[in-house]
Design a protein that fits this description.
- It is a single chain.
- The protein is of the alpha/beta class.
- The protein has eight helices and nine strands.
- The strands form two sheets. Strands 3-2-1-4-5-6-9 form a seven-stranded parallel β-sheet, with helices on both faces.
- α7 links the parallel β7 and β8.
- α1 packs across α8 and α4 runs parallel beside α6.
- GO terms for molecular function: oxidoreductase activity.
- Belongs to the short-chain dehydrogenases/reductases (SDR) family.
- This is SDR family oxidoreductase.
Protein backbone atom coordinates (compact mmCIF):
# COMPACT_ATOMS: atom_id res chain seq x y z
CA UNK A 1 0.00 0.00 0.00
CA UNK A 2 1.27 3.46 -0.89
CA UNK A 3 1.80 5.28 2.47
CA UNK A 4 1.05 8.62 0.79
CA UNK A 5 -2.26 7.47 -0.69
CA UNK A 6 -5.40 9.18 0.66
CA UNK A 7 -7.23 7.29 3.41
CA UNK A 8 -10.60 7.61 5.10
CA UNK A 9 -14.02 8.10 3.64
CA UNK A 10 -14.98 10.77 1.11
CA UNK A 11 -17.44 13.28 2.58
CA UNK A 12 -19.33 16.16 0.95
CA UNK A 13 -20.73 18.75 3.37
CA UNK A 14 -22.98 21.35 1.76
CA UNK A 15 -23.01 24.82 3.30
CA UNK A 16 -19.73 24.28 5.14
CA UNK A 17 -18.26 27.79 5.12
CA UNK A 18 -19.13 28.42 8.79
CA UNK A 19 -21.43 27.43 11.64
CA UNK A 20 -22.70 23.86 11.76
CA UNK A 21 -21.26 22.99 8.36
CA UNK A 22 -17.80 23.96 9.57
CA UNK A 23 -18.24 21.90 12.74
CA UNK A 24 -19.39 18.89 10.72
CA UNK A 25 -16.43 19.16 8.34
CA UNK A 26 -14.12 19.34 11.33
CA UNK A 27 -15.39 16.16 13.04
CA UNK A 28 -15.09 14.11 9.87
CA UNK A 29 -11.59 15.39 9.14
CA UNK A 30 -10.56 14.68 12.75
CA UNK A 31 -11.32 10.98 12.29
CA UNK A 32 -9.28 10.75 9.08
CA UNK A 33 -11.95 11.37 6.44
CA UNK A 34 -11.44 13.63 3.44
CA UNK A 35 -13.95 16.44 3.12
CA UNK A 36 -15.33 18.50 0.26
CA UNK A 37 -16.13 21.87 1.84
CA UNK A 38 -18.98 23.44 -0.12
CA UNK A 39 -19.83 27.13 -0.15
CA UNK A 40 -22.04 29.41 -2.22
CA UNK A 41 -20.89 32.99 -1.67
CA UNK A 42 -18.61 32.89 1.38
CA UNK A 43 -15.40 31.70 -0.25
CA UNK A 44 -13.05 33.30 2.27
CA UNK A 45 -14.87 31.72 5.22
CA UNK A 46 -14.94 28.37 3.42
CA UNK A 47 -11.21 28.62 2.83
CA UNK A 48 -10.73 29.18 6.57
CA UNK A 49 -12.78 26.05 7.22
CA UNK A 50 -10.63 24.09 4.78
CA UNK A 51 -7.34 25.42 6.16
CA UNK A 52 -8.28 24.44 9.72
CA UNK A 53 -9.15 20.81 8.94
CA UNK A 54 -6.98 18.00 10.24
CA UNK A 55 -5.33 15.75 7.69
CA UNK A 56 -5.02 16.20 3.96
CA UNK A 57 -6.87 15.56 0.72
CA UNK A 58 -9.69 18.00 1.44
CA UNK A 59 -11.15 20.13 -1.36
CA UNK A 60 -13.03 23.41 -1.68
CA UNK A 61 -16.15 23.35 -3.87
CA UNK A 62 -18.14 26.47 -4.75
CA UNK A 63 -21.54 26.73 -6.37
CA UNK A 64 -25.21 27.54 -6.00
CA UNK A 65 -27.11 24.37 -5.09
CA UNK A 66 -30.52 26.06 -5.27
CA UNK A 67 -30.98 25.02 -8.92
CA UNK A 68 -30.53 21.61 -10.47
CA UNK A 69 -27.59 22.54 -12.71
CA UNK A 70 -25.73 24.19 -9.85
CA UNK A 71 -26.22 21.19 -7.60
CA UNK A 72 -24.93 18.88 -10.34
CA UNK A 73 -21.86 21.05 -10.80
CA UNK A 74 -21.08 21.04 -7.10
CA UNK A 75 -21.54 17.28 -6.85
CA UNK A 76 -19.36 16.49 -9.85
CA UNK A 77 -16.60 18.81 -8.67
CA UNK A 78 -16.69 17.22 -5.22
CA UNK A 79 -16.67 13.68 -6.60
CA UNK A 80 -13.76 14.51 -8.88
CA UNK A 81 -11.78 16.15 -6.10
CA UNK A 82 -12.34 13.31 -3.64
CA UNK A 83 -12.30 10.46 -6.14
CA UNK A 84 -15.87 9.44 -5.28
CA UNK A 85 -18.31 9.86 -2.40
CA UNK A 86 -19.08 7.83 0.71
CA UNK A 87 -20.96 10.34 2.88
CA UNK A 88 -23.20 13.29 2.03
CA UNK A 89 -24.27 15.78 4.69
CA UNK A 90 -27.07 18.05 3.47
CA UNK A 91 -26.51 21.16 5.57
CA UNK A 92 -27.03 24.11 3.18
CA UNK A 93 -30.12 26.04 4.22
CA UNK A 94 -31.98 29.34 4.14
CA UNK A 95 -33.78 30.66 7.22
CA UNK A 96 -35.18 34.17 6.74
CA UNK A 97 -37.90 35.74 8.88
CA UNK A 98 -41.35 36.09 7.20
CA UNK A 99 -44.30 36.06 9.63
CA UNK A 100 -47.49 36.04 7.58
CA UNK A 101 -49.24 39.04 9.25
CA UNK A 102 -46.24 41.31 8.56
CA UNK A 103 -44.98 40.06 5.20
CA UNK A 104 -46.24 41.51 1.87
CA UNK A 105 -47.39 38.87 -0.59
CA UNK A 106 -44.61 39.36 -3.16
CA UNK A 107 -41.97 39.04 -0.47
CA UNK A 108 -43.78 36.05 1.01
CA UNK A 109 -43.85 34.22 -2.33
CA UNK A 110 -40.20 34.97 -3.05
CA UNK A 111 -39.07 33.78 0.38
CA UNK A 112 -41.06 30.56 0.10
CA UNK A 113 -39.41 29.89 -3.26
CA UNK A 114 -35.96 30.53 -1.79
CA UNK A 115 -36.58 28.18 1.14
CA UNK A 116 -37.95 25.42 -1.06
CA UNK A 117 -35.11 25.76 -3.57
CA UNK A 118 -32.31 25.53 -1.00
CA UNK A 119 -33.72 23.60 1.95
CA UNK A 120 -35.69 20.97 0.05
CA UNK A 121 -34.75 20.79 -3.63
CA UNK A 122 -31.01 21.12 -3.06
CA UNK A 123 -31.23 18.33 -0.49
CA UNK A 124 -33.21 16.15 -2.92
CA UNK A 125 -30.91 16.84 -5.85
CA UNK A 126 -27.63 16.36 -4.00
CA UNK A 127 -29.04 13.17 -2.48
CA UNK A 128 -29.86 11.82 -5.94
CA UNK A 129 -26.42 12.68 -7.31
CA UNK A 130 -24.57 11.23 -4.33
CA UNK A 131 -26.71 8.11 -4.05
CA UNK A 132 -26.38 7.25 -7.73
CA UNK A 133 -22.61 7.58 -7.43
CA UNK A 134 -22.64 5.39 -4.30
CA UNK A 135 -24.73 2.79 -6.14
CA UNK A 136 -22.28 2.76 -9.04
CA UNK A 137 -19.35 2.41 -6.64
CA UNK A 138 -21.06 -0.61 -5.05
CA UNK A 139 -19.75 0.05 -1.54
CA UNK A 140 -22.77 1.59 0.18
CA UNK A 141 -22.73 4.95 1.89
CA UNK A 142 -24.43 7.40 4.19
CA UNK A 143 -26.65 10.46 3.73
CA UNK A 144 -27.38 12.67 6.76
CA UNK A 145 -29.84 15.56 6.47
CA UNK A 146 -29.95 18.56 8.76
CA UNK A 147 -33.58 19.05 9.70
CA UNK A 148 -35.05 21.05 12.58
CA UNK A 149 -37.10 20.94 15.75
CA UNK A 150 -39.25 23.56 14.00
CA UNK A 151 -40.66 20.84 11.76
CA UNK A 152 -42.56 19.53 14.79
CA UNK A 153 -43.34 22.50 17.00
CA UNK A 154 -44.07 25.13 14.33
CA UNK A 155 -42.17 28.25 13.25
CA UNK A 156 -44.59 31.20 13.28
CA UNK A 157 -41.92 33.71 12.21
CA UNK A 158 -40.23 31.29 9.79
CA UNK A 159 -43.04 29.09 8.39
CA UNK A 160 -41.26 28.16 5.16
CA UNK A 161 -38.25 27.02 7.16
CA UNK A 162 -40.38 24.77 9.37
CA UNK A 163 -42.30 23.37 6.41
CA UNK A 164 -39.26 22.63 4.28
CA UNK A 165 -37.45 20.99 7.18
CA UNK A 166 -40.48 18.76 7.75
CA UNK A 167 -40.25 17.84 4.07
CA UNK A 168 -36.54 17.09 4.49
CA UNK A 169 -37.38 14.64 7.29
CA UNK A 170 -39.97 12.93 5.08
CA UNK A 171 -37.59 12.83 2.13
CA UNK A 172 -34.93 11.19 4.28
CA UNK A 173 -37.32 8.48 5.41
CA UNK A 174 -38.43 7.76 1.85
CA UNK A 175 -34.83 7.51 0.69
CA UNK A 176 -33.93 5.31 3.65
CA UNK A 177 -36.37 2.67 2.37
CA UNK A 178 -35.40 3.16 -1.28
CA UNK A 179 -31.65 2.99 -0.80
CA UNK A 180 -31.30 0.31 1.89
CA UNK A 181 -30.89 -2.51 -0.69
CA UNK A 182 -27.74 -0.73 -1.88
CA UNK A 183 -26.23 -0.45 1.59
CA UNK A 184 -26.95 3.28 1.79
CA UNK A 185 -28.36 4.47 5.11
CA UNK A 186 -30.21 7.80 5.30
CA UNK A 187 -31.05 9.66 8.50
CA UNK A 188 -31.82 13.18 9.71
CA UNK A 189 -31.10 15.25 12.78
CA UNK A 190 -33.65 17.71 14.16
CA UNK A 191 -31.74 20.26 16.23
CA UNK A 192 -33.26 22.84 18.50
CA UNK A 193 -31.57 26.19 18.94
CA UNK A 194 -27.78 26.00 18.74
CA UNK A 195 -25.12 28.68 18.87
CA UNK A 196 -23.48 29.83 15.63
CA UNK A 197 -22.19 33.11 14.24
CA UNK A 198 -25.44 33.65 12.37
CA UNK A 199 -27.65 33.63 15.47
CA UNK A 200 -25.23 34.88 18.13
CA UNK A 201 -27.05 38.22 18.34
CA UNK A 202 -30.24 36.46 19.38
CA UNK A 203 -28.58 35.01 22.46
CA UNK A 204 -28.08 38.45 23.99
CA UNK A 205 -30.35 40.09 26.55
CA UNK A 206 -33.93 39.06 27.25
CA UNK A 207 -34.36 37.14 23.99
CA UNK A 208 -31.28 35.07 24.76
CA UNK A 209 -32.53 34.29 28.24
CA UNK A 210 -35.90 33.19 26.87
CA UNK A 211 -34.24 30.94 24.28
CA UNK A 212 -32.08 29.28 26.95
CA UNK A 213 -35.12 28.71 29.13
CA UNK A 214 -36.70 26.59 26.39
CA UNK A 215 -34.50 23.73 27.62
CA UNK A 216 -34.52 22.47 31.22
CA UNK A 217 -30.73 22.45 30.94
CA UNK A 218 -30.89 26.24 30.74
CA UNK A 219 -28.69 26.55 27.70
CA UNK A 220 -28.55 26.07 23.94
CA UNK A 221 -26.50 23.49 22.09
CA UNK A 222 -23.14 24.04 20.51
CA UNK A 223 -22.57 23.32 16.84
CA UNK A 224 -20.05 20.69 17.92
CA UNK A 225 -22.75 18.73 19.77
CA UNK A 226 -24.89 18.58 16.64
CA UNK A 227 -21.87 17.68 14.51
CA UNK A 228 -21.04 14.72 16.77
CA UNK A 229 -24.53 13.31 16.22
CA UNK A 230 -24.11 13.72 12.46
CA UNK A 231 -20.76 11.92 12.66
CA UNK A 232 -22.35 8.98 14.46
CA UNK A 233 -25.29 8.70 12.07
CA UNK A 234 -22.80 8.57 9.20
CA UNK A 235 -20.69 5.90 10.89
CA UNK A 236 -20.59 2.22 9.90
CA UNK A 237 -22.12 1.40 13.30
CA UNK A 238 -25.26 3.44 12.64
CA UNK A 239 -26.74 1.54 9.70
CA UNK A 240 -29.70 0.39 11.85
CA UNK A 241 -30.54 4.04 12.54
CA UNK A 242 -31.44 4.51 8.88
CA UNK A 243 -34.78 6.29 8.57
CA UNK A 244 -34.53 7.96 11.96
CA UNK A 245 -35.11 11.62 12.74
CA UNK A 246 -32.91 12.25 15.76
CA UNK A 247 -34.11 14.97 18.15
CA UNK A 248 -31.28 17.15 19.47
CA UNK A 249 -33.04 19.82 21.49
CA UNK A 250 -32.12 19.40 25.15
CA UNK A 251 -35.64 18.24 26.06
CA UNK A 252 -37.04 21.56 24.87
CA UNK A 253 -39.63 19.81 22.67
CA UNK A 254 -40.75 16.27 23.37
CA UNK A 255 -42.73 14.13 20.95
CA UNK A 256 -43.89 10.52 20.77
Amino acid sequence: MNPSAPTGRRVLVSGASRGLGRAVARVFAAQGDRVAVHYNSRREEAQRTLDALDGSGHVLVGGDVSDAAGAAGVAEEAFAGLGGIDVLVNNAAVNLRHPLPETPYDEWAALWQAHVSVNLLATANLSHLAARRMIDQGSGGRIVNIGSRGAFRGEPDHPAYGATKAAVHALGQSLAVSLAPYGIAVASVAPGFFDTERVAHRLEGAEGAAIREQSPFGRVASADEIAEAVRWLASPAAEWASGTVLDLNGASHLRT
